[in-house]
């Protein structure tokens, strides 16, 4: 402590004050910029729509019995009675909100051999009120499936529009948790 | 333009207190401050979705200032580290200290920027407030833009019900693991740096810590409301030091932000290729190397190692790693064989720069001094990175420039003062904590006051040496200093 006081007295009052001012100014500026100015992520009336698609996918083609020639090329323990294709079909997605087109695209199955899941996430900011969605999915041999629903959304609501192996769902995220 | 600011800073922060000249050491120090306060906070932190936010609030509000100060220092030291690291990068960039043998430190520093960002943002996630929610969702958008991602990371933040306690265990793991990777990276960053200062001088360290504590008391670190994934976020209290790319992800999309970030990093990585340093390197002459190891000890870039001597039994010999050598010449300033007090073969030495031999400088100085017929001869010695001293030459003044002031063997001054009637020496160069070759000024000062070998031999010579560590643009100071010396010599009747 006495060493510190000696050091401070060596510096002299003007320097000590100048150093304190420097650190205080820089410190307060840093503290301010680490919280301010705020960033407005969305308006007060905004609603967020999350489009979530996760489907295990549909194989292209059917399983067929293995031929004797094919079986002969395999080791005995690998000789399954059927040969099934790995590749899955892509999925066409078309979303319209309040009759306006919002998203159109093709989801490819994951993996080098297109044999993984099909997944998509998109989010959109909308204005609170009545929100009608129309989601059209064309998924391989399942053909075209269309889902339509209207929700009355309050400001700051998060809406989840989902399509998975179980089918379509559209609800408020808060209600999903409560349910 | 920056000269007045630097001058002002020199006055405010004398005797190695200047934070601008200790940016690397300060960054290391702040890392340790963050680690120490982080350990404290971790003791009270609960790794669960319900407990995370609440436990941080308890630390802030229920520990009679201690928790709040610890949290504040943790937060603001992170912010300060972003500032010191950024300034460190800008300074090295402006001084072009990325080329040649310095490429390693430069390139190894680039990934540290990413790790620093990741470390800090990971800390914000842990609080699990609305800011954390924003960071989580936006980071997810950024990662989901990588083409190889199979399932979007955003699936983990669809609604409140999706997030589980295990998520916080993962976050803690990342918030410990990434800073450890950062520390490892910092270790590699210093691999080609000798005498690295990873802790600033005590006075500066204490000043910074006190400042952090005071700021934590004046503007405590607080949380935003608890995260709620079922609600749209309102205004976010942004940390503009670390979260500055995030609004651009919202505005331009993650692809563009990736392109900018990756391009910027690539540019930094490739920068050493754009400016190949033209340099002279040091070379050892085994015939004269006595294996003392002083050059090995003083080399600022760890470019010298010792091995058994080529032909002298029980002797060591210095070897220069040519790819690591920046050509500062500090090794030749440290070599005891580089002395004019030799009976024969004076130009031979154990180690010297290939294209800038010390003895050439000595010969030139000696020649010029012998041409001067006036009494009271003054020798000014400068370096390439300080003010050009050759402009001060006149009938009384002889000036010489070296690659670095550390290249000057003290014996040269002993010799020139004793044998060539130099009455006063003015030594100038880079600013004292800001030597272009890192240690030239510091080592030379230690040699002059006999704290380091080879040292100045004669006490009366030491009294004739003036030092002015002012860097570039110090013409006015040098001129006034020389006027003072001349006046004093005149008064003394020299």
Chain-wise SSE layout:
The complex is a heterodimer of chains A (179) and B (494).
Chain A: H1 2-11, H2 13-33, E1 39-40, E2 46-55, E3 64-65, H3 68-73, E4 82-83, E5 91-97, E6 100-107, E7 118-127, E8 129-139, E9 144-153, E10 158-164, E11 167-172, H4 173-178
Chain B: H1 3-12, H2 23-44, H3 51-61, H4 66-94, H5 103-127, H6 130-144, H7 165-189, H8 202-218, E1 235-236, H9 246-252, H10 254-274, E2 282-284, H11 294-298, E3 304-308, E4 316-320, H12 330-334, E5 351-353, H13 358-371, E6 377-383, E7 397-402, H14 410-419, E8 422-429, H15 440-448, H16 459-463, E9 465-469, H17 475-491
Parallel strand pairs in B: 6-7, 6-8, 8-9
Antiparallel strand pairs in B: 2-5, 3-4
Helix pairs in contact in B: 2-4, 3-4, 4-8, 5-6, 5-7, 5-10, 6-10, 9-10
Question: What this model shows, in words?
Answer:
The complex is a heterodimer of chains A (179) and B (494). Chain A is of the alpha+beta class and 179 residues long. Chain A contains 4 helices and 11 strands, in the order ααβββαββββββββα. In chain A, the strands form 3 sheets. In chain A, strands 7-2-10-11 form a 4-stranded mixed sheet. Chain A has a 4-stranded antiparallel sheet with strand order 6-5-8-9, with no helix packed on it. A two-stranded antiparallel sheet of chain A has the order 3-4. In chain A, strand 8 (129-139) and strand 9 form a beta hairpin. Chain A starts with a helix and ends with a helix. By secondary structure, chain B is an alpha/beta fold. Chain B folds into 2 domains: 12-274, Cytochrome Bc1 Complex, Chain C; 282-491, 2-Layer Sandwich (Alpha-Beta Plaits), CATH 3.30.70.20. Chain B has a 4-stranded parallel sheet, sandwiched between helices. In chain B, strands 2-5 form a two-stranded antiparallel ribbon. A two-stranded antiparallel sheet of chain B has the order 3-4. In chain B, strand 3 (304-308) and strand 4 (316-320) form a beta hairpin. In chain B, helix 3 (51-61) packs across helix 4 and helix 5 packs antiparallel against helix 7 (165-189). Chains A and B meet through helix 1, helix 2, strand 1, strand 2 and strand 7 of A and helix 4, helix 8, strand 1 and helix 9 of B. Strand 1 (39-40) of chain A pairs antiparallel with strand 1 of chain B, so a sheet runs across the interface.
């Amino acid at each position: 402590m006495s060493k510190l006081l000696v050091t401070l007295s060596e510096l002299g009052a003007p320097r000590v004050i100048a150093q304190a001012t420097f650190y205080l100014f820089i410190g307060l500026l840093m503290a301010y910029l680490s919280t301010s100015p705020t960033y407005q992520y969305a308006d007060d009336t905004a609603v967020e729509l999350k489009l979530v698609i996760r489907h295990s996918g549909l194989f292209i083609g059917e399983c067929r019995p293995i031929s004797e020639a094919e079986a002969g090329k395999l080791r005995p323990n690998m000789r399954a009675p059927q040969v099934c294709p790995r590749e899955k079909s892509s999925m066409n997605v078309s979303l319209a909100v309040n009759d306006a087109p919002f998203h159109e695209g093709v989801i490819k199955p994951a993996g080098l051999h297109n044999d993984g899941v099909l997944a998509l996430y998109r989010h959109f900011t909308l204005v609170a009120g009545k929100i009608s969605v129309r989601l059209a999915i064309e998924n391989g041999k399942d053909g075209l499936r269309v889902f339509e629903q209207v929700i009355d959304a309050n400001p700051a609501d998060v809406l989840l529009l989902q399509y998975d192996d179980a089918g379509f769902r559209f609800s408020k995220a808060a209600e999903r948790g409560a349910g | 333009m920056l000269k007045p600011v630097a001058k002002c800073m020199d006055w405010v922060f004398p005797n190695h207190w200047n934070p601008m000249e200790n940016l690397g050491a300060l960054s290391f120090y702040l890392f340790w401050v963050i680690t120490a306060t982080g350990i404290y906070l971790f003791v009270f932190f609960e790794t669960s979705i319900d407990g995370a936010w609440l436990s941080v609030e308890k630390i802030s509000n229920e520990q009679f200032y201690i928790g709040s100060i610890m949290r504040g220092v943790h937060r603001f030291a992170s912010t300060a580290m972003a500032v010191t690291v950024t300034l460190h990068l800008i300074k090295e960039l402006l001084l072009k200290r990325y080329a040649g043998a310095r490429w390693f430190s430069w390139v190894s520093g680039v990934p540290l920027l990413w790790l620093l960002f990741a470390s800090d943002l990971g800390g914000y996630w842990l609080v699990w407030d609305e800011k954390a929610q924003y960071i989580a969702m936006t980071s997810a958008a950024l990662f989901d833009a990588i083409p190889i991602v199979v399932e979007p990371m955003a699936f983990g933040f669809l609604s409140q019900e999706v997030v589980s306690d295990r998520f916080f265990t993962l976050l803690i793991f990342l918030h410990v693991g990434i800073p450890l990777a950062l520390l490892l990276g910092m270790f590699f960053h210093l691999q080609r740096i000798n005498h690295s200062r990873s802790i600033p001088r005590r006075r500066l360290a204490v000043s910074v810590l006190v400042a952090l504590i005071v700021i934590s008391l004046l503007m405590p670190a607080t949380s935003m409301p608890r995260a709620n994934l079922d609600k749209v976020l309102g205004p976010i209290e942004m940390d503009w030091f670390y979260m500055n790319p995030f609004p651009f992800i919202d505005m331009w999309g993650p692809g563009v932000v990736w392109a900018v970030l990756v391009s910027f990093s690539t540019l930094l990585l490739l920068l050493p290729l754009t400016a190949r340093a033209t340099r002279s390197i040091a070379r050892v002459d085994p015939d004269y190397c006595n294996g003392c190891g002083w050059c090995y000890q003083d080399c600022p870039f760890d470019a010298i190692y010792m091995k058994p001597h080529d032909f002298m039994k029980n002797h060591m010999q210095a070897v220069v790693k040519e790819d690591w050598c920046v050509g500062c010449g500090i090794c030749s300033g440290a070599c005891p064989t580089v002395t004019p007090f030799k009976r024969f073969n004076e130009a031979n030495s154990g180690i010297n720069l290939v294209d800038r031999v010390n003895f050439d400088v000595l010969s030139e100085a000696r020649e010029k001094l012998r041409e001067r017929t006036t009494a009271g001869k003054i020798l000014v010695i400068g370096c390439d990175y300080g003010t050009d001293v050759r402009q001060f030459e006149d009938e009384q003044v002889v000036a010489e420039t070296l690659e670095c002031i550390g290249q000057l063997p003290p014996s040269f001054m002993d010799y020139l003062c004793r044998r060539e009637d130099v009455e006063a020496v003015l030594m100038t160069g880079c600013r004292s904590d800001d030597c272009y070759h890192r240690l030239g000024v510091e080592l030379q000062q230690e040699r002059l006051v006999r704290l380091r070998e080879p040292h100045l031999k004669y006490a009366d010579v030491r009294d004739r040496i003036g030092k002015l560590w002012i860097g570039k643009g110090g013409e006015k100071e040098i001129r006034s200093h020389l006027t003072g010396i001349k006046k004093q010599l005149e008064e003394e009747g020299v």
